Amino acid sequence: MDTVRIAAVGAGVVGLSTAVCISKLVPRCSITVISDQFTPETTSDVAAGMLIPPVYPDTPIHKQKQWFKETFDHLFAIANSAEAEDAGVLLVSGWQIFRSIPTEEVPFWADVVLGFRKMTEDELKKFPQHVFGQAFTTLKCEGPAYLPWLEKRLKGSGGLILTRRVEDLWELHPSFDIVVNCSGLGSRQLAGDPKIFPVRGQVLKVQAPWVKHFIRDGSGLTYIYPGISNVTLGGTRQKGDWNLSPDAEISKGILSRCCALEPSLHGACDIREKVGLRPTRPGVRLEKELLAQGSRRLPVVHHYGHGSGGIAMHWGTALEAARLVSECAQALRTPAPKSKL
Amino acid sequence: MRVVVIGAGVIGLSTALCIHERYHSVLQSLDVKVYAERFTPLTNTDVAAGLWQPYLSEPSNPQEAHWNQQTFNYLLSHIGSPNAADMGLAPVSGYNLFHEVVPDPYWKDVVLGFRKLTPRELDMFPDYSYGWFNTSLILEGRKYLQWLTERLTERGVKFLLRKVESFEEVARGGADVIINCTGVWAGALQPDPLLQPGRGQIIKVDAPWMKHFIITHDPERGIYKSPYIIPGIQAVTLGGIFQLGNWSETNNIQDHNTIWEGCCRLEPTLKDAKIVSECTGFRPVRPQVRLEREELHVGSSNTEVIHNYGHGGYGLTIHWGCALEVAKIFGKILEERNLLRMPPSHL
After folding, report:
1. How far apart, in whole angstroms, are the C-alpha atoms of residue B285 and residue B197?
2. Where are the beta strands (DSSP E) in chain B?
3. CATH architecture of the domain covering A4-333
4. Which of A108, A237, B64, B116 could covalently link to B59 via disulfide, CB atoms 3.0 to 4.6 Å apart?
5. More confident residue, B221 or A50
6. Chain B touched by A211 (CB under 8 Å)
7. Chain B residue at shortest CA distance from A212
8. Which protein family is named in the record (chain B) (predicted)?
């Protein structure tokens, strides 16, 4: 087999970054990203893109830390290069604050971000309702710039992009030899996976250029994330809610909670409401599956279920997915009558 | 009581406000006027990036350290008000970078969260081997002057565009107390060999991804002669020019190149940033701030002059502490003249 033909389903941050990693890792392959939605219409475009990782209950901590570190290092290099503005990557400092002392004062990712330390008494005075806080510098990676940047990288190495809604992974057989399933919530249908469900997030994107720091309440429900051209105010975590239309009452609530943390936001203007459905799962599904139907075989690498950690973990998980794809490609190339994948 | 403030930069306007706030209600009548040749956006304050940060070494007058701290605390008390951004005020964090280990600055406990840089942070700046991180404040000159002007106008303070030729002229016009906030041009009213212009040139760019200030230090070259990048509310200020004795008000192409090359080397992401504007200003450099009173005998009356000028490159950093000190001196003058209706509530 000369060229291994690989299809990546899904064009969010996971689909595109996986495609880029595959194009770099797998020799003699062609990679096509297939999706019905592209930037700026993906979930990755709604996310603020702050590198503050969630915890996946089903994934060992050392693995999460590895994925986060690989993503952080990858984006850190971009942030310090001339590409930073194009790629939508920037450094932001700020505070994560708690209304009661958290059980874990130092999270697993403390030494991955920069300058992590406890907030001083003087710093906490700014947040009278909060008794504990962490100060650090991390990265923000903005979908609307980063996704086009990934697409450019992909096309530069010969990758293709196809707009199409895939209803069944078998549609990709026999045109493609390997499928990488990065369809997020789409995997409920495409992989028949009942473990993945939406956690609805509503945010406001506002103009408040004087805000230079992020502020995140430790509960994760209220946050202020300054970006390149707007500030993201959030948020909500509504399990099982598929509704993509913004709710005006929720927007009022978000603005009010954020103004309580940062009163200068009363002067924010040009307020835009956005909704994203986090593709949530107890752990990221990152594994091979050989689909079989009669005599047909289709090797699939599943790579989905990042929940609220899509951007924070994408590069680390994409590297691993690319390794799995590489293994599949190797197996296809190895001439053996009854090869097991 | 007729007060004339000469000068409408940050020193003039903040001193006028401080005096009016404290004495308006304890005096039978208080008339405050501001005379100036230049108003915002044409003052030196408008050129300043506006970062609160004193010089690294202790000031020769220890009162200045106190005034710096008073200013920081005063500004900090406005953080948390919905109007902070209208004042041009916002918290900002960032980096001070050095080529070798240096002692901590005397103001390390005034700013928030002061710490040394970690090795990974220093990796971002390959030309530097040591540094600090802290949270400070931005007080954008132009916005702050606009805000001060609004507050003063609400209080009935009048502004007059006037070139003042002498203190006597103002005294003859009926002023009881003159506050001299003429900054780098104070020498025109009264020769002061200690006062010199510290010419600065800055480039303002559109680089909204820059959320931190980055200030480099080169002890061999001196303060403000090493590249610095300071984000403001809308634009980012790039600088690194300090020329003692240079009165040239026009932008200089060599200085432009020095700033641009220095800042792009420090922060490669600036390479494609769009230039919004470029300006020149004169820091009113003096070994220490001149803040003292002087009696003027004009005809048969005594006019008091309170000098408040010579704040170098730290005018915004020190302004409120100085304004409070001037207000204290003003209060003494009122006491001496038996003008106080009731004791001032606080000074």
Report:
1. 6
2. 2-6, 31-36, 89-98, 112-116, 130-139, 158-161, 177-180, 196-206, 212-216, 228-231, 236-239, 243-244, 274-285, 290-298, 301-309
3. 3-Layer(aba) Sandwich (3.40)
4. B64
5. A50
6. yes
7. B211
8. Belongs to the DAMOX/DASOX family.
Percent of chain B, pLDDT > 70? Answer: 98
Nearest to B85 among A126, A210, A226 (CB): A210
Q: Which of B82, B118, B269 sits opposite A264 (nearest CB)?
A: B82
| Contact across the interface for A211 and B112, Cβ inside 8 Å | no
Residue A244 sits at φ, ψ, to 5 deg, of -90, 0
Please determine, for residue B347, whether its predicted confidence score (pLDDT) is greater than 60.
Answer: no
Distance of CA B118 to the CA centre of its chain: 31
| Residue at B24: amino acid letter | H
Here the tokens at position B74 are 């005063």
CB B281 within 8 A of CB B142: no
Output the DSSP codes for A95-149. EEEESS--S-SS-TTTTTSEEEEEPPHHHHTT-TT-SEEEEEEEEEE-HHHHHHH
| Region B149-157 average pLDDT | 97
Ranges of each domain in chain A: 4-333
pLDDT tens string A242-258? 999 999 999 999 999 99
Task: Determine contact, residues B180/B293, Cβ cutoff 8 Å.
Answer: no
* Mean pLDDT over each residue of chain B, to the nearest integer: 95
Greatest alpha-carbon pair distance for chain B in Å reads 69
Cα–Cα distance, A13 to B120 (Å, whole number) = 26
Q: State pLDDT tens for residues B279-333.
A: 999 999 999 999 999 998 877 778 999 999 999 999 999 999 999 999 999 999 9
3-state secondary structure of B290: strand
Does residue B234 belong to the interface with chain A, where contact is any CB pair within 8 Å? yes
CA A179, chain centre distance (Å): 20
